[in-house]
Fold this sequence. Notes:
The chain is an alpha+beta fold. Helix content is 42%, strand content 11%. It has helices at residues 14-25, 34-45, 50-60, 64-73, 93-97, 100-111, 156-164, and strands spanning 85-90, 124-129, 141-143, 146-148. The chain has a 4-stranded mixed β-sheet, with helices on one face. Strand 3 and strand 4 (146-148) form a beta hairpin.
Amino acid sequence: MMKKSDLHVELLDTTRLNQLDSYIETIQDPVGSLINVLHRAQHIFGYIPRELQLYIARKLNIGAAKVNGVVSFYSYFSEEKTGKYLISVCMGTACYVKGAEEIVKTFLRELDVDKHEVTDDELFSVRDVRCVGACGLAPVVTVGEKVYGHVTPDDVAKIIKDFRGDKVC
């Protein structure tokens, strides 16, 4: 059995690993529930770095390649640290033709970051995703669980302000 101390990454603190372990212990078929385990890991840690993927693979007694394959396939999962609020701009066909690329550029400019970087205040990260399945609302932006439809570049500052609160954009 692998000990938590075997992991040499300070990001994987014992308290968070204990939370994940407790969750895994409640599942009857953890291997069959890999996506649920990964969702919980993402919720607890904020992202799923390679070291955590390896920990999950060992804990579930499955190959690390399988875990990484799931993490890298689904756009919900992130292997890199993100800001408290992850801004995802849909780049599916409907969103793209309705101006999603300009929306991404506007978010990056307003927040003064590049894609996948974290803002200095650690509040925001911006990424583009393949499709969020809301083509009728194109272009679509999600911030965490909140969905914004028919977004224009003019909406970007307000969306940021909604999550930043009273702080100046």
